[in-house]
Structure formats: structure tokens, C-alpha cells
């Protein structure tokens, strides 16, 4: 007989406790015990408890390799129902042996119904470090079970592939919103719909009567940033600044040569450039920047409230005056085809002509941001990273331990989006100018040109030539966070991979990379996305890219949606009249008639309000309450990472004190670890 002490930690979430029977089997090098019931007088396994049990093994199993956890209904005859499925969230189990140090077995999983689960001791192991056949077999069985649970499907041709589930109701508990998060989400939905319904706006299909009437929306919810937008939305400096620090700060690039299809002349821009310079001189100096929404050319347009909608593919030229001052727009062309019917609009034009041109650009920003920057880059690709992590990396793998916090709830929110946002007849179809079909076209087009460098912030900044443009806080804060993540990842990688050969010889790592390449980037070699990794340096960059895009990048392009859209003319989701083909024709009533109808405005504002804020149950970047790593070295690296993020936050908040409009969309305590809303 060998006696063991077993300590069990149950999660503290709503419903985490169980009435079911829990037993453990201890697997060693010389055999396996029968299931040993964990039982003592009174109720066991209540939410938030840590409990101790004594068990006796009838045999000596040798050095411990695994711990099998068994969960079974309390009543053997219980029907398939609530009692039989009674779920339990196990945080960890600690086994104290007669000899040797205690072994901690991380779990952090839900067990439903009658279920058994094999747990490994906490030390992270790459596959080549497993020297016992039982451990190697356990890795294979765990991955096979996950691959049987999480299947790929093609949601739309040309899109990254995704989880094959139709509804969040079908998701298993380990990838589903917690009860708390789910309740908060639907309470927010209900309160928003009720408020706008009572105001009589949600069902009103007509035009806004005036800009002043739109102020009714400001009583809905307000933030300091939204108040700033309302006050400054017509100003050229604010219009330009949104390309740097708004919800889509990833398109602006330095312009060294004007595109042939954007024939701006010296005479057009002389009033803005001032004396003693020219367009060519400013191009050579590097003070001109371009935002090109050409991806929208000939995109499918939608029908809203029975009326055809319109879209434009504008080009915007911007000027950064040497010696400081704000970035300013110089010229806007609303199509990719210059000519008599596609004039170039200028700041010197009639006030309403110029305002309408800028509003068309903001509508283009809405379409490209929501379909490409937000949906594709910040949701669909992180879903691919999540799926590959679950399917190709066992729980004991150091990369699984590193990445799993950055996958939390991603499959739930994306499945919900396919149900409620981008399904036919839902929000995108009801209330945007290009609809689901237009979104799909933009995603397909971007997938054909998407490159690895776009996903790696330092390379993206260099490729767009925006290393030194002033007041670009997305760049400044993003590079600091990228650096902190990269340093953290590098430390973890160097703990578990002693050489480049160790990277090459890890079949699970290579399968993970290969699956992301084939299922996410559809095997397109021209993307530059690797299908295999050969060095530790390449692995560090790749994992940094995954974590950054699943956390900081998502927050940067998501959190500002409501701030930007609550004053709808700043970010119109659709346009009801075609782009102007001549100057001097725009009047206030024509400007209003071009803007979205009342019900579409409300529909989008509710959606973006929900998508801009986490509905409870948050885990900020670098917060790891689930202790997957148990060794001292990675835990020191986690602490150093958290300290660096805290320092970055202090620097951001100190800078923001001097800004009229603080940039908060990359403040680490506000960033979620994962794509979860």
C-alpha cells in the first residue's frame, strides 16, 4: 500500500462546482492504480474551493507519469440530463507522494458528464523531451481527441477557414463564454435595443431631418473621445489624425511618387503648400502621405430599406508640414479613374463639397476597417491561430502554455459573429453599404495580397515608410508592446529550445505552423507566411506576431469603433446617393440625403458599442491567472513581462496628460489577452 495526498482546486466561476463523483488513477512507470475516489464527509468540489484528500494505492506504480481524472454521475442510474452532465471546472490537482516533491498537474478545463482526462505534471515538454512511451502515447491521444472535437470548415470561398460549428449553443464549455460574460453581453444588447426603441429611432427608415437631430444619439452613451469627435469632426486636422490614431491606423503610407491615376497638380495644392516649394519637392522631401482605398473599386453594393446604396474607392493625399504642425489633407479623389466625372476635391473648395468628399473617405474607412482590418485581420486570423493551437499542440507543450491565454473566447465570439453579424439578413446585410457580399469580396481581395510583413508591426511600419511621422501614437505604443511581447516570447523559447535544430526537430510545432499556413493563408506562398520554421529567431517573430495580433492589434482596431461612430457623419456605414461627379453642387440638404437612414445608423451604433467594450470577465494583456507554467524560469519571465507592460502603461498615461485627445487604444491594462468581443 502506498498513500498519497491529493489536493484539488475547483474554479470559482458560476457553475464551476459539481455534485458528481471524482476519482483519480495514478499512472507510473510500473503500472496504473484503479480509480481512487476523492471523498470526505460533506459536499466536495464546490466553486472556489481547494480541498485535500488521502488515497491509498494497492500497488507501487513507480515514478509518476500521468494522473487520470475520472468524473461520473453521483447516481449510477441517472438519466442523460442535468445530473449526468453536471460540469466541473478543475483548475489543478497536486499529488504528494511518500517520497519526493509534490507534483502539480495543471488542468484548467471543464469536464462534462461522464468523462476521463489524462493530466501531465506541470513542467512543459517538447515532444523530443518525452522519453517514455506512455507519455508519447498520451500526447498523440490528446491531439487526436482535440482534432476529433475541433473541425475546420470553409465559411466562404477565399476566406481563412474556421471552426465547423453553426451556433454558440453547440460549443463545448472550454471554448464558450462564461455565464458571467454571456449574461453581461446580452444585458448590454437588451438595454441598447430598448433605449433606441423607446426613442422611436430603431424602426425609423427615413432620413435624419438635420445634423442637430442626430444629437439625439449622443444621449445614448458618451465617452470623452466621442465628445471630442462631435466637436471636431469637420476639421481637416482631425480628419487627417484619424489615419494615425483612429480605428484604422494601418493604411497611411509615405508617398514618394504620385499614382498615375491621381493627377494632383501644383496649382491645386499651392495654397496649402505655400510659397517656395512644389509638389515634386515635397514628394522628394517625404512630407506627403497617401491613403488609398482602391480595394473598394467596383465592390458589390447593398440595398437598405429597399433603396440601392453606393460606395466609392477614394484616394487621399496628406501633407506633413516640415517643422511640425498637424497632418492635413491636400486632395481627395473619390474614384480610381480620373476624368471629368471624377474631380479632385480640395480644401479650398466650397465647404459642403469638401465636407462631403471627406465623408465619402470616412465611409470607405468604415467598409475597409470593418471587413479587412477588423473582421479578417483581427478576428478570422486569430481564430486560425486558436484552432491550430488546439489541434496541434498538446497541453504540456511550452507553446500551448504560452498561447492558450491568447485564445480565450475567440471561437465563441467568432461563431457568434457568424450567427448575428455577418449572416445573411443580419446587421451587416441590413445596415451597411456593401453588405455581406461586399464584405466577402473585400476579404477575398485582401487575402490575395496579404503579406506576413503586414502582420509584423515593425516590418509594416517600415514598409509603409511611416517611421518618423510625428504624433503617430498607434506606432509608438504598438512598437513598445511588440517589443515587450517579443522579449517575453524570446525568453520562453530559449528556455525550451536550446538550438535551431531543436526547433526543426519539433514535429508538433511544425504541424502547428503548417496548419496555420494551409488553413489560414490557404497555402499561398506569395504571402511570405512561413509553412515551416527553421530557427529560434524565426519562431520568436512568429509567436510574437500571433500574440500581438490576438491582443494588442485587435484592441487597437476595435476599442475605438464606438467613439468614432456615435457621431455618424464621422463614420457613415453606408451612403444613399452616388459620389459627386462635379463640384459646386453640394448643399446641406444633399449632404443629409447622402447619409445613412435612421434605423441603419442605430443598428450599427448598437453593434459597434457592443464590440468596443468587453462585457465583463476580462483578462488584460499579461494577466495569467491560469498557471499553466509551473517552473520557476518561465514564471520569472511572466513577472518581467508584466513589469514591462506596467512601465509602458505609465509612459502612455504620462504622455496622454498633455494631449487634447488622449490615445488609449494601446494602454496595456485596457488590452484584452485575446480576441473575445
Automatic annotation (TrEMBL):
Provide GO CC annotations from the record: cytoplasm; lipid droplet
Please list the GO biological process terms of this entry.
arachidonate metabolic process; lipid oxidation
Start and end residues of each PLAT domain: 2-125
For the ligand (Ca(2+) 2), the binding residues are 39
Entry EC no(s): 1.13.11.12
Reaction equation(s) it catalyzes: (5Z,8Z,11Z,14Z)-eicosatetraenoate + 2 O2 = (14R,15S)-dihydroperoxy-(5Z,8Z,10E,12E)-eicosatetraenoate; (4Z,7Z,10Z,13Z,16Z,19Z)-docosahexaenoate + O2 = (11S)-hydroperoxy-(4Z,7Z,9E,13Z,16Z,19Z)-docosahexaenoate; (15R)-hydroperoxy-(5Z,8Z,11Z,13E)-eicosatetraenoate = 15-oxo-(5Z,8Z,11Z,13E)-eicosatetraenoate + H2O; (5Z,8Z,11Z,14Z)-eicosatetraenoate + 2 O2 = (8S,15S)-dihydroperoxy-(5Z,9E,11Z,13E)-eicosatetraenoate
Does this entry carry the keyword Metal-binding? yes
> Quick one: which pathway?
Lipid metabolism; hydroperoxy eicosatetraenoic acid biosynthesis
Q: Where does Fe cation bind?
A: 374, 379, 554, 677
What does the cofactor section's free text say about binding? Answer: Binds 1 Fe cation per subunit.
Query: Top EC class per UniProt?
Result: oxidoreductase
Please list the residues that bind Ca(2+) 1: 15, 17, 86-87
- Which UniProt keywords are listed? Calcium, Cytoplasm, Dioxygenase, Iron, Lipid droplet, Lipid metabolism, Metal-binding, Oxidoreductase
What are the required cofactors? Fe cation
* InterPro entries cross-referenced by the UniProt entry: LipOase, LipOase_C, LipOase_C_sf, LipOase_CS, LipOase_Fe_BS, LipOase_mml, PLAT/LH2_dom, PLAT/LH2_dom_sf
Predominant subcellular localization, coarse grouping: cytoplasm
GO MF annotation, one? iron ion binding
Q: How does it assemble?
A: Interacts with PEBP1; in response to IL13/interleukin-13, prevents the interaction of PEBP1 with RAF1 to activate the ERK signaling cascade.
Write out the similarity annotation: Belongs to the lipoxygenase family.
- Annotated PANTHER family: LIPOXYGENASE
In Swiss-Prot or TrEMBL terms, this protein is called Polyunsaturated fatty acid lipoxygenase ALOX15
What gene name does this entry carry? ALOX15B
Amino acid at each position: 500500500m502506498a498513500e498519497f495526498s491529493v489536493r484539488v482546486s475547483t474554479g470559482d466561476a458560476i457553475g464551476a462546482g459539481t455534485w458528481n463523483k471524482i476519482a483519480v488513477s495514478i499512472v507510473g512507470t510500473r503500472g496504473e492504480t484503479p480509480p481512487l475516489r476523492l471523498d470526505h464527509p460533506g459536499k466536495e468540489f464546490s466553486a472556489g474551493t481547494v480541498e485535500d484528500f488521502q488515497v491509498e494505492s494497492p500497488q507501487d506504480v513507480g515514478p509518476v507519469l500521468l494522473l487520470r481524472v475520472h468524473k461520473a454521475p453521483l447516481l449510477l442510474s441517472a438519466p442523460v440530463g442535468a445530473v449526468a452532465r453536471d460540469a466541473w471546472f478543475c483548475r489543478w490537482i497536486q499529488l504528494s507522494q511518500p517520497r519526493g516533491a509534490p507534483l502539480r498537474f495543471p488542468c484548467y478545463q471543464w469536464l462534462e458528464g461522464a468523462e476521463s482526462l489524462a493530466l501531465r505534471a506541470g513542467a512543459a515538454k517538447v515532444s523530443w523531451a518525452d522519453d517514455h512511451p506512455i507519455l508519447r502515447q498520451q500526447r498523440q491521444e490528446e491531439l487526436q481527441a482535440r482534432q476529433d472535437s475541433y473541425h475546420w470548415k470553409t465559411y466562404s470561398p477565399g476566406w481563412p477557414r474556421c471552426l465547423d460549428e453553426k451556433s454558440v449553443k453547440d460549443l463545448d464549455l472550454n471554448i464558450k463564454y462564461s455565464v458571467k460574460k454571456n449574461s453581461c453581453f446580452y444585458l448590454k444588447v437588451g438595454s441598447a435595443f430598448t433605449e433606441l426603441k423607446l426613442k422611436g429611432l430603431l424602426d425609423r427608415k427615413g432620413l435624419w431631418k438635420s445634423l442637430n437631430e442626430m444629437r439625439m444619439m449622443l444621449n445614448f452613451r458618451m465617452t470623452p473621445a466621442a465628445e471630442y469627435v462631435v466637436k471636431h469632426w469637420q476639421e481637416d486636422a482631425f480628419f487627417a489624425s484619424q489615419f494615425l490614431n483612429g480605428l484604422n491606423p494601418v493604411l497611411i503610407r509615405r508617398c514618394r511618387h504620385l499614382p498615375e491615376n491621381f493627377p494632383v497638380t501644383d496649382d491645386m495644392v499651392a495654397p496649402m503648400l505655400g510659397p517656395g516649394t512644389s509638389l515634386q519637392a515635397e514628394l522628394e522631401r517625404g512630407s506627403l502621405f497617401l491613403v488609398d482605398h482602391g480595394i473598394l473599386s467596383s465592390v458589390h453594393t447593398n440595398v437598405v430599406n429597399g433603396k440601392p446604396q453606393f460606395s466609392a474607392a477614394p484616394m487621399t493625399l496628406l501633407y506633413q508640414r516640415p517643422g511640425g504642425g498637424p497632418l492635413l489633407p491636400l486632395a481627395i479623389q473619390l474614384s480610381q479613374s480620373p476624368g471629368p466625372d471624377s474631380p479632385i476635391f480640395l480644401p479650398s473648395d466650397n465647404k459642403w463639397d469638401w465636407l462631403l468628399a471627406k465623408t465619402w473617405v470616412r465611409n470607405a474607412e468604415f467598409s475597409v476597417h470593418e471587413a479587412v482590418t477588423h473582421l479578417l485581420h483581427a478576428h478570422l486570423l486569430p481564430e486560425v491561430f486558436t484552432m491550430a493551437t488546439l489541434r496541434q499542440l498538446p497541453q504540456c507543450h511550452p507553446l500551448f502554455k504560452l498561447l492558450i491565454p491568447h485564445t480565450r473566447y475567440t471561437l465563441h465570439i467568432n461563431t457568434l459573429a457568424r450567427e448575428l453579424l455577418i449572416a445573411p439578413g443580419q446587421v451587416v446585410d441590413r445596415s451597411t453599404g456593401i453588405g455581406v457580399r461586399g464584405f466577402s469580396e473585400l476579404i477575398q481581395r485582401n487575402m490575395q495580397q496579404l503579406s506576413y510583413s503586414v502582420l509584423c508591426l515593425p516590418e509594416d511600419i517600415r514598409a509603409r515608410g511611416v517611421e518618423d511621422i510625428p504624433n503617430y501614437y498607434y506606432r509608438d505604443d504598438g512598437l513598445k508592446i511588440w517589443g515587450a511581447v517579443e522579449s517575453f516570447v524570446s525568453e520562453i523559447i530559449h528556455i525550451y529550445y536550446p538550438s535551431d535544430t531543436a526547433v526543426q526537430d519539433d514535429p508538433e510545432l511544425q504541424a502547428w505552423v503548417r496548419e496555420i499556413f494551409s488553413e489560414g493563408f490557404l497555402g499561398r506562398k506569395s504571402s511570405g507566411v512561413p509553412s515551416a520554421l527553421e530557427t529560434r529567431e524565426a519562431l520568436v517573430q512568429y509567436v510574437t506576431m500571433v500574440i500581438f495580433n490576438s491582443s494588442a492589434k485587435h484592441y487597437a482596431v476595435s476599442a475605438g469603433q464606438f467613439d468614432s461612430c456615435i457621431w455618424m457623419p464621422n463614420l457613415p456605414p453606408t451612403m444613399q446617393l452616388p459620389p459627386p461627379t462635379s463640384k459646386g453642387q453640394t448643399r446641406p440638404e444633399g449632404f443629409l440625403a447622402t447619409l445613412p437612414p435612421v434605423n441603419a445608423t442605430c443598428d450599427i451604433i448598437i453593434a459597434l458599442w457592443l464590440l468596443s467594450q468587453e462585457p465583463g470577465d476580462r483578462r488584460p494583456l499579461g494577466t495569467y491567472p491560469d498557471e499553466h507554467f509551473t517552473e520557476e524560469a518561465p514564471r520569472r519571465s511572466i513577472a518581467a513581462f508584466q513589469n514591462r507592460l506596467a512601465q509602458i502603461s505609465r509612459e502612455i498615461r504620462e504622455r496622454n496628460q498633455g494631449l487634447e485627445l488622449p490615445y488609449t487604444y494601446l494602454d496595456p491594462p485596457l488590452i484584452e489577452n485575446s480576441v473575445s468581443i
